Amino acid sequence: NDYLIAAREQALRCDDPDLLGASNGVLVVNPKPWSDREQYLTMAEEMVTKATRTVQGLGYTAGAFFTFGKFKRAAETEELLRERLTLTGQVNGLLQILSMDSRDAYIRGNLEESLKLLEKMADYSREVSLEEVASHSITFTGLKTIAYLGKSENYPESPVWDIISREMAKPLHRRLPIL
User: Fold this and answer.
1) How would you classify residue 109: left for phi > 0, otherwise alpha for psi between -120 and 50, otherwise beta?
2) Which pTM value belongs to this model?
3) Long-range contacts made by residues 167-171, C-beta under 8 angstroms, separation at least 24?
4) FRET pair for 80, CA 20 to 30 Å: which of 94, 104, 109, 156?
């Protein structure tokens, strides 16, 4: 955290939106339970005004608002992110949009729609050779969806099961169920 805080201070001094998006982003989307909520929300607002010139800054900012229960603010930021990703045509952008849509479907209780979006994400990522990037996102976004649905007659061959099983074998992801 000390390095991230130093990077954040440097970004503010140099007016560097990329560095601010990266440093603040990692700080605000990974808060500890004992974190100062107001400090994190202040950093998120700071990112809206200074770091949202970058897609990374927008993504982290939306995640921060979502994490701290500022759902309307998160939705506004995600809409700006969608607009930016659509305009730029970034391949990773479609994966990010599918991930957000899957999360939203899960929150609404539409697990089947959430799974279909995750599968679309897996298929698209294979097409464009970004499977590792998407696998990480699918694991974070889809773990609860797939756990609630379970393997069944309706979902016996889902590529999402394969991806999550493979990713959960990695030390980085083994902690996910307890987060």
Assistant:
1) left
2) 0.71
3) 167/135, 167/136, 167/138, 167/139, 168/139
4) 109
